[in-house]
Amino acid sequence: MRSSSFPARFWGHLKTITLHKLRVTRLCFKMGLIKQGLLHDLSKYSPVEFWAGVRYFQGYRSPIDAEKEAKGYSEGWLHHKGHNKHHWEYWIDRNKQCQGLFCVEMPKRYVAEMVCDRIAACQTYQKEKYTNASPIEYFLQGSDKQFMHPHTAALLQQYLEWVRDFGIDAAFKKIQQDLRRSEVV
């Protein structure tokens, strides 16, 4: 259930999205993605996303899930995924040759930002229960993998496994090396 009072939902949502944004920004900076860290999730403060977040705020999970349960879809999510390249859903397109929708392979720098986003989301919602295995466990339990471009899904899984197996600092060094190698090619 959502918090009952409007002020509690308003301040709770504002605090949650700001904490998440700051965490992602710090993680992006640590990975060398300065511009992406600064610009990450600014759309969450836009009216369509912010007010949907306030209305469906619960504090222990994304308001997007609650809005989808209530309405069957989320206006906030539709806006968010269309304005943020670190979400694989941004990279879905339509093609007459394919006669339908298809997923485009994401550039590595946005996959790296998605790693930061998933770590920060798990830290924000799981609080003290967070471990470096949390992001890969969340990824493997979800259905994202079956809809992502196969190369994007494999790369994200590899990066998240590095976080689990080596810790954030060592994993980020490996990801930075991988990003530099792909820029040279």
UniProtKB/TrEMBL annotation:
* A UniProt-annotated Pfam family: DUF5662
InterPro entries per record: DUF5662
What is the protein name given in its UniProt record? Catalase
Species source reads: Holdemania filiformis
What is the taxonomic lineage of the source species? Answer: Bacteria, Bacillati, Bacillota, Erysipelotrichia, Erysipelotrichales
